[in-house]
Specification:
The complex is a heterodimer of chains A (272) and B (298).
Chain A (H helix, E strand, L loop, with lengths): L5 E13 L5 E13 L3 E5 L6 H8 L7 E6 L2 E2 L7 E4 L11 H7 L9 H14 L15 H14 L4 E5 L7 H18 L2 E5 L3 H7 L2 E5 L6 E6 L16 H29 L1
Helix pairs in contact in A: 2-3, 2-4, 3-4, 6-7
Chain B lengths: L38 H4 L9 H24 L11 H13 L2 H32 L1 H15 L7 H8 L3 H25 L3 H9 L4 H38 L5 H10 L3 H29 L5
The chains are: A alpha/beta (272), B mainly alpha (298).
């Protein structure tokens, strides 16, 4: 039910692919979902469940088979600057410096002069604490820094929604932890609507205002958890030791675990 | 360092303020190797890098060995001079050729190669990019190009002579045909290897098709494209020799063939060496340019 608080709306969205061996593969079952402005929503679910596909449809990088997704009232028909995306793999451009990459996020903005673009790029570079590395080529910096470059670049483009596809998935545990905190720090000032896909349940609970747990393929919403009601808005590392955090973590984990066991049993049955 | 997950950092640590330590010229990291063997020793160790200057010296030794063996065989008259002239005779022949305006022949040959190569690149780069970008262009031209590129170039010599006569046109046409159909597929492949994420990033930052091709695709594929061009330039020389031997009255290939006709083996050797040197020099120049232009890859 679309309310005035909904920002992104999924209207009975489905997705299927054509199977090369004939027939079709359902990836997303009819999905209706409302996401509020400024909400940090995390998608979790068993691997290959279609959560990334759902997010890519918001990005306009894939089209729904039926149904529609709207971003303040307007139907999403293709990728645009309104839907910023951060990928898991390092998508920073190697031929540009750190600053050059962030500035690329502003390249197609017509509302800014060249001087303004420089100023905005430096502002976001500072936000992700990479100013000392402005003139480094991205091959010269670490993976964690490269993801910060990608985040700064996407924010500089000033999107309505920030889509993050396992952005910290390739990083080591400590770097990941630091980037999670920095992301929350950024959110305090940026207040973007974020859709974040991950398979790391701790990460999901730590970051989310709301967690959507998807079933195994075809994706269907198993549970819609309001994390904000359970955890304080201010997230610190210590929060991970609280009973409320553990309870949420356990809830999400057992949902995914059951789902994966169910699929495995079904696959076994199909083989024998 | 404390035990823990393997840090993926290649050059910089992630902690702010600690500046990246660059690797040395051989691409090794400072104090990475537990024991320092001599670079000469490293030459003989399985899959081990050594200093680049050491490798250059080894390369020079190879040339010296070949020339020494050559000298020995001719001095001891193991092989008759009309089959294998002495290096000195070759040098003399070379000198003689230059007395006889050999530099003009070299200039003409280089001109032909670069003209044909330039025209070929000019057509192949846009078409290759389009072929990888739009399936319409790819599906339409790939089968056709595949068919033509399997035709051996010498088989097309009579045709180019019929169409373009024995003037410059036929030579340039032969070289163009010989390289274009190979090059366009290489370029299309280079474009196809650009990661999907780069393109999608561009799209979500607001780039249209044309901007994507210009600002993302071309920039991302450029280093590989220059390599493709360098390889193709080498093939140009092969076809040039064919063209100049068949029908020409100038150029390195013509002089080579004329020398053979009069049994002047030293001149034949001088011609072969000339081509080898031009090839080596232009290849090294492009490689050096590549390193300079794409320093960000290092």
């Amino acid at each position: 039910m679309p309310t005035d608080r909904s920002f992104i709306e999924f209207h009975q969205v489905t997705k299927w692919f054509r199977d090369p061996r004939g027939g079709t593969i359902d990836v997303v079952e009819p999905l209706s979902l409302d996401i509020a402005k400024g909400e940090f929503v995390v998608f979790v679910g068993p691997s290959g469940c279609g959560k990334t596909t759902v997010m890519r449809m918001v990005g306009g990088l894939e089209a729904p088979s039926t149904g529609a997704i709207t971003l303040p009232g307007e139907k999403i028909t293709g990728p645009s600057r309104a839907k910023g995306m951060v990928f898991q793999s390092y998508s920073s451009f190697p031929w540009l410096t750190v600053l050059g990459n962030v500035r690329f996020g502003l390249k197609y903005r017509r509302d800014l002069s060249s001087a303004d673009k420089d100023r905005v790029a430096r502002h976001y570079l500072e936000l992700v604490k990479l100013t000392p590395f402005a003139d480094f080529y991205v091959n010269r910096i670490s993976g964690g820094m490269r993801q910060r470059v990608a985040i700064a670049r996407t924010l500089a483009a000033d999107p309505l929604v920030l889509l993050m596809d396992e952005p910290f998935g390739a990083l080591d545990a400590l770097t990941r932890e630091r980037l999670q905190q920095q992301l929350l720090e950024l959110q305090k000032t940026e207040r973007k609507t974020v859709i974040f896909v991950t398979h790391d349940v701790d990460e999901a609970v730590f970051l989310a205002d709301r967690i959507i747990v998807f079933s195994a393929r075809p994706a269907r919403v198993l549970r819609d958890l309001n994390v904000r009601a359970e955890l304080p808005a201010e997230r610190t590392l210590e929060i991970q030791e609280t009973p409320a955090f553990r309870k949420l973590r356990h809830e999400v984990l057992s949902l995914i675990r059951d789902e994966e066991e169910r699929t495995e049993a079904a696959e076994l049955a199909a083989v024998s | 360092m404390a035990p823990g997950p393997r840090v993926r950092n290649r050059l910089a640590t992630d902690s702010e303020g600690s500046v990246a330590k660059p690797p040395d010229r051989a691409g090794r990291f400072p104090a990475a190797a537990p024991r320092q063997a001599s670079p000469w020793h490293d030459l003989f160790r399985f899959r081990t890098q050594t200093r680049p200057d050491v490798e250059v010296w080894v390369g020079i030794v190879a040339f010296v060995v070949v020339i020494a063996a050559w000298l020995m065989m001719t001095e001891l008259e193991v092989i008759q001079p009309q089959f294998l002239p002495s290096p000195l005779a070759v040098l003399q022949a070379w000198w003689g050729l230059f007395q006889n305006e050999y530099h003009l022949d070299i200039g003409i040959s280089i001109g032909r190669v670069w003209l044909a190569f330039g025209l070929s690149a000019l057509a192949a780069i846009p078409l290759g990019v389009l072929m990888s970008s739009y399936r319409a262009a790819g599906a339409f031209s790939e089968p056709l190009i595949d068919f033509i590129r399997y035709l051996p170039v010498p088989a097309l010599v009579p045709l180019t002579l019929i169409w373009f006569g024995i003037d410059e046109g036929s030579k340039v046409a032969l070289l163009w045909i010989g390289t274009f159909f190979q090059l366009v597929l290489l370029i299309a492949d280079d474009a196809r290897r650009v990661p999907k994420e780069f393109i999608e990033t561009g799209r979500t930052l607001g780039a249209g098709d044309w901007a994507l091709m210009k600002d993302v695709l071309l920039r991302a594929m450029l280093p590989n494209m220059v390599d493709s061009l360098r390889i193709t330039l080498g093939w140009c020389w092969t076809y040039l020799l064919i063209a100049e031997i068949v029908a020409s009255n100038s150029g390195i290939g013509y002089e080579l063939w004329t020398a053979r006709r009069y049994g002047k083996t030293p001149e034949v050797f001088a011609g072969i060496l000339t081509i080898g040197i031009i090839g080596l020099v232009s290849d090294q120049l492009i490689r050096a340019g590549h390193r300079r232009a794409f320093r960000y890859l290092g």
